[in-house]
Amino acid sequence: MTKTNLLILLENKSDVLSRIINLFSKTGYKIKNLSISKNIKKKNLSNFSIEIFGKKKFIPQIIKQLKKLIDIFNVKIIKKSSKKK
Predict the structure, then answer these.
(1) 7 Cβ contact list (under 8 Å, min separation 6)
(2) pLDDT tens readout for residues 63-75
């Protein structure tokens, strides 16, 4: 099992957050922490930070699926750490 922190740059729209949460729930990842803040440079965008916990093999798949969402502009892995179960 791996704990991963992602930083997602997304458009300020009401349904974007729910689509992201649904994506994680479908893959069996547990959301440990999340926060969202306005982007300083672009007022119509937000920075979404999310800490997830799940199987390491699904991380690349989740990132690809996030990038396919229309209102997502960028996805970066901030930190990754493995925990033995």
Answers:
(1) 47, 48, 49, 74, 75, 76, 78
(2) 999 999 999 999 9
The SS3 of residue 13 is coil
- Pull the structure tokens for residue 75: 């996805």
Give the CA diameter of the chain.
42
Length of the chain: 85
Place of tokens 């926060």: 35
Tell me the C-alpha distance between 5 and 13, whole Å: 22
CATH number of domain containing 16? 3.30.70.260
What is the number of structural domains in the chain? Answer: 1
Whether the model clears a pTM of 0.90, i.e. scores above it, the answer is no
